[in-house]
Amino acid sequence: MITRRNLIKNLSAVPLLGGLAGTASILPFTEAAAAAPARDYFAELGVRTFINAAGTYTAMTGSLMLPEVLAAIQYAAKDFVMLDEIQDKAGQRIAKLVRSEYAVVTSGAFSAITLGLTGVLSGMDEKKAALLPHLAGTGLKTEVIMQKAHDIPYAHALKNTGVKVIQVESREGLEKSINDQTAMLFFVNANNAEGPVKVEDFIKIAHAHNLPAMIDCAADVPPVENLWRFTEMGYDMVCFSGGKGIRGPQSAGLLLGKEKYLKAARLSMPPRGNTIGRGMKVNKEEVLGMMVALEYYLQRDHVKEWKLWEGQIDLISKAAASVPGVKTETVVPETAANHIPTLRISWDAEKVPVTATALREKLRNGSPSIEVADAPHGNKYGISITTWMMAPGQEKIVAARLKEALSHLS
Ligand SMILES: *Cc1c(COP(=O)(O)O)cnc(C)c1O
């Protein structure tokens, strides 16, 4: 309903639509946001919001963008540009920032995997790109090799191109599986510890056989250095999520690496339509938002941020451990993924007779609602907490509510 008050509010948002565009873009973000109509859309829809004490989960909508990133997205929404031109120019800046030869903004790490592989398969030939995913009889290569220990669900991204994924269990098996149908070798950085062939050897083997190699590093910042570590190691293509630690748009990602493959990957991307990548669209808003999120991520004081997380974890840990029967431990997971201070809380079921499922339900149903993560190894009497997706101050709420829930006071 348009009341007079809302109308005035809406009018103050008009600069965003044209006319006084210059004025809107110089407004500090908070004022620009204040000028926007104040509708509580989630409340209107009855959608629950919550404190995210779990981490960067797609099901929980990933991460929150910084005001500067939101301002860039709002800025991008106000003008038309050519999609290829913004990808070219933002890509150049991104490449420079992370010391890569070339860079493309994709709709996530998953699509970076699919699209990077299309570039390998098609080369700079649009007609070949249009053949995917039906490779049989085309003369295009048909196989990608990876280690069985790296078989994560996201490896499905490779299959979307039509290739067959060959899984190997040893270095010997890897070298034996390479044949004239092999298009690429694929490595999952988070699983480095599990596979027999480690990250440095893997790229050497690929290059010894004149094959390109791709690495999935989706959730692998921090540390920030990972943004250039693997291109510098020689990986031809490196895939990151935009909406995890970098806190860019959740539907964005980065494909970094060799110009030769990434330019070819662009042939399978919008605006080109007769391709398997047409549905993996990112528009100017995500491209610019991704670039700006990366800029701010690189500028951030990572040491200070780490200390902030440790302090928050410590506060929650002490509150939980003050309940008899509850044990806490702060760890930094050894895997490359989600390499951040993580609190593991577990309890003696006799002293604290509540399952993790029931505890999570309690936290979820309270006000404000709180989401935490599962404990590792299917422990029914434990949970995990990270604070990197929380707004500063929320750790106090989580600490108090957790203590209350573990003490059966709620
Ligand atoms: C999250 C993740 C992906 C998918 O990333 P999106 O950016 O959500 O597409 C792929 N691989 C790994 C290892 C991941 O953790």
Keywords:
410 residues, alpha/beta, Aspartate Aminotransferase, domain 2, Aspartate Aminotransferase, domain 1, 2 domains, seven-stranded mixed β-sheet, four-stranded antiparallel β-sheet, 13 strands, globular, disordered N terminus, binds pyridoxal-5'-phosphate
Which helices and strands appear, and what pairs or packs with what?
Layout lengths: L3 H9 L8 H6 L2 H7 L5 H5 L5 E2 L14 H10 L6 H15 L4 E5 L2 H14 L3 H4 L13 E5 L8 H4 L4 E5 L2 H7 L4 E7 L10 H10 L4 E4 L9 H8 L3 E5 L11 E5 L1 H8 L17 H16 L2 H20 L4 E6 L10 E6 L8 H10 L4 E2 L1 E2 L7 E4 L8 H13 L4
Helix pairs in contact: 5-14, 6-14, 7-13, 15-17
The structure holds pyridoxal-5'-phosphate.
Pyridoxal-5'-phosphate binds next to helix 7.
Which class best fits the helix and strand makeup? alpha/beta
Average pLDDT, all residues: 92
Level-2 CATH architecture of the largest domain: 3-Layer(aba) Sandwich
Q: Count up the domains.
A: 2
Tally of DSSP helical segments: 17
User: Main beta sheet, described?
Assistant: 7 strands, mixed
Largest sheet, spatial ordering of strands: 2-8-7-6-5-3-4
Spans where pLDDT lies below 50 across 5 or more residues: 1-29
- Report the sheet-strand fraction: 5-15%
**Radius of gyration, rounded?**
24 Å
CATH topology of the largest domain: Aspartate Aminotransferase, domain 2
Question: Nutshell version of this structure?
Answer:
With 410 residues, the protein is of the alpha/beta class. It has 17 helices and 13 strands. One of its GO terms (molecular function) is L-seryl-tRNA(Sec) selenium transferase activity.
